[in-house]
Structures are given as C-alpha cells and as structure tokens.
User: Fold this.
Amino acid sequence: MVNIDARSQVCPTCKSKKTLKPFKYGMGVPGEDSEFITAGCMSYPGAPELGCSNCDWTGNIKDFLNLDSIMIEPEQLESLHRFYNPRLDTEIQIQSAGITLINTFAYDLFEYINSDLIESNGKNWMIDLQVNDLSGTKVNFSDPAFLLKDLVRNSQSVLRKPLNSVIPKTELKNFYDRLAEILGERNAWFHNQIQLIPEQLELLIILILKVVKVLNLKTERECNLLLKILNKAVPGDQVTVEVDNKSPDAKGIVKEFENLTQKDDLEVGASVDGIFIPQSYTLHLNGSIRDRKTDQLLEEIIPDALTLGTLLIARKPSGGRLRITNEGIVVAYFNDYWGFLAKVKKENWFPGHLN
Assistant:
C-alpha cells in the first residue's frame, strides 16, 4: 500500500502541473470541495483514485509509481490496484479508506458467492433469479447495501446457499448478525455519522475481519495491511461469548430507569443524524451492555446497568449493536438507518466514553 502527493505529479494526458486531485467517494455533493474530485457515494475495486482538473484524464496511484525504486512487499504490490495507504491525520482519507474497505469486502463476498452458484446452479443463475422474482425488484448485487440487505433479511435468499454450506449451523446466526452489523456500519460511514478518526477505522476493520476470516476472502489482506498502518496487531478468530439469561426484577424498574437516563426528546426508532463516538457496544438479550473493544460489561461498573439494558431490550427486542453520540443518545440499527433508543446520563455509561 503506497501513498503519493497528487499535486506533485504531472498529468499524463495534458502534461499540466499541480492539476491532479484525489477522488472523494461518499455522500458529498459533486463540486463541493476544491481539493478533491467528488464522485458520488460508490467506490469499488479499481475505481479511479486521481483525476485532472484541466482535462478528462482519470487514473490510479499505481500509474505514477516507479516500482523499481520502491521497496514494496509482494502482497502490497498485488493489492495496489484495490487500495492505497491512507494518511491517518486526514479525515477525508480515513473516510475514503473506510468506504473503499466496505466496497472491497462486498465485492469479494459476491465473487465468492457468484463463483459457487455458477458451479452449482449454472452461469445463468442470476437471470433465473430475476425471471422467477414476481416482485419486479431490480437486482443489483454490485451495490454493497443491496447485497448485504438480501443476505441479512431474506432467509430464503439463494445467495445464502454457498455460505450456509461452509458455516456450521451453530454459527449461522452469529455470522449473519455480523453481516447485519457491517450493513449498519456501511450506513454510518456513507452518511457521515461517525468521527473520522483512526479508532473508527480500526473498529470497522476488525468487524469485517470476523467475516472474511471465516470465508478466506482476499479482503483479509487489505484488513491486515490497514492494521499494520494503524500499528495494531491482527486479531485472532472471533470468540463467541455466552451470557447468562438473568434479568433484573421488574418491580420499580421505571423509577430506576428515570435515574439512569434523561427525558426522551425523540420517539423510539426515530432517525438520528448525530456523530457517533469511536466506541461501539453489544446489547445482549438479557439486558447486558458490552463494550465491544474491551469486552467489559456495563453492569460490572454500574450496578443498575441491567435496568437500563432491560428497557433497551424492550425497545429493541432483537438486541444487537449499539452506538452512542457524545450527548449520550444511544442508537441501534433499524433496517436502513440508526435509530433512537434512549438518552443516558454521562455518569451512567462507561467511564471516559462521553465528554
């Protein structure tokens, strides 16, 4: 993974100097930033990384590399066309790295599924799928959101066939829960709902690694290289944590909850557009709230935390991944967006997480 200063390069077509700009993928409005070329929300492996503001040339960083003069590892060279080395002190490059990683993962995931279905169902399996679909839904598995939604929400999806054949039945729910979390993170990254800091990128990498390791996807290489840049160790395989099914007594729960939270300004499930802090959490079905990075339970710090968790489960019975804003707004992923669950007081959350 290699980085260059685009402004220092000469356009290979018009030979202009200082006219090359990096592409910016995300939800930005085209033309809104003079330092970048905004290109809509979708990036993909091999997508243009640079463009000239003086002519129509677009290309990739590797077009400017003299590989004979650069010390580069073989696996870095192989993935050069898929990724580049982001500067971690630049928000837009962190965002670009996150979005590109999500799209690269989705691309590899579909390639894995497609190659298996071609072998088992024939090369026209996708045409057959559309012919037999009476809903008229336009199929676009190159869109990461469409692909992940179909896998997560459609238990009868033909796309699940190759995955279910290699994942133990006891781990299937865990696996599709991880895909649902990636879908939620995709939404947060594409809609600028996160702080663009290295810690957020690290969380995304580790989440995606939990899936790519199971399927041995090529994206594992990009994840490991990004972790090297972040100076982080590559994590081991996912460990499933069993949680006791204990729950607090219902008596007096409403009064206790009022002591733990602030008055709701939003309805449960209302879309939240705030910026989420780097930490993320898991809401277990018994009401436990777990810090995903440290594995610590909130009830180990705050004795009344299970009361809070019980109300959150009542509002989101399936539990799952939680995020929170600096203002204490706790959100969960509802279908296509992050929605309101509750607003907690700073002293009733994990110490040091809320400013």
In short: Residues 29-33, 65-81, 237-258 have pLDDT under 50 and may be disordered. The two ends are 35 Å apart (CA to CA). The first strand starts at residue 20 and ends at 24. The CA atoms of residues 188 and 194 lie 6 Å apart.
